[in-house]
Each structure stands twice: as C-alpha cells, then as structure tokens.
Amino acid sequence: MSLLSYEVRAEAEVAATAEEVWRVLTDLPGYPDWHPAIVETSGALRVGARQREVVRAGNGRTLTFRPVLTVVAPGRELTRRGRLLAPGIFTGVHSYRIEPAGDGRVRVMQAERLSGVLVPFLRGRLATDTRAQFEAALAGLAARLEKDRRR
C-alpha cells in the first residue's frame, strides 16, 4: 500500500449458504433493514450498471454515491467502484466475498480499497470507524440471515 491508498477489511462466519447470503446482498431495497450505514440503495445487478447508494456517515450526515458494479458473481462476489468528487480525490472499490466454511456455514468478507489524495488525511478514521462499520454490517447481515431462516 502506498501513502495514497488504504484497505479496510472485516469478515464473519455465518450459518447460511452462499445462496442465502447472495439473496440478502442482492436485495438492494432491503439494505436499510440490516446494514446500519445504508439509508437507500438501488440499481441493476449487472457488471457496468451504475447504482445509487445513500450512506449515513459517522457524523450523521448522508452522502450519495453512484458506484459502478465491476463484479457480479452469484454466490461468490459483489464488487463496486465509486468515487467522491473527481478522479484522484477519493476512490473506493468495495466488495463482498463469500467462501464456504464447512458445516452449513460461509465466510463473508467485506473489504474496501481506497485511494486518492484524501486517504492520508482519513487514514485514522478509516482504520477505526470504517472497520467498526463493516463489522456492524456483517453482524446485521448475520442477524438478517438468522431471521430469514426462522420464517
């Protein structure tokens, strides 16, 4: 990693199949039900499609992003690339990856590779706040999967 790039990661093992996780990750209108930072998300689920994502920042403000899907691999990976303002300022490549973990469980990894001139100024917040947000999102995902299984 260079001075102008940083990666944030979190992962969790959940009692679900890859298909169950994929169903939740691709239910875009359902994100606010389980993801604590997502206020709204919409768009087509195909590579090259632009999505609309409204995110609640740690300070309570909302930011709207228009990321482009770069990987849509059912049951395995959902990745999108977005930026703040202009190229080179702050670009993020955000992904969810799903891997078998055995015994009816999967490992869900959430990661974001960030780059741009703002990264050095935000590195501390990215290491703490963003990682905590990822962990909360994965806990919300696990809770949503458990709720769906009880139905």
UniProtKB/TrEMBL annotation:
Name of the protein described by the UniProt record: SRPBCC domain-containing protein
InterPro entries (alphabetical): Polyketide_cyclase/dehydratase (IPR019587), START-like_dom_sf (IPR023393)
Family annotation (Pfam families): Polyketide_cyc2
Matches recorded under SUPFAM superfamilies: Bet v1-like
Signal peptide residue numbers: none
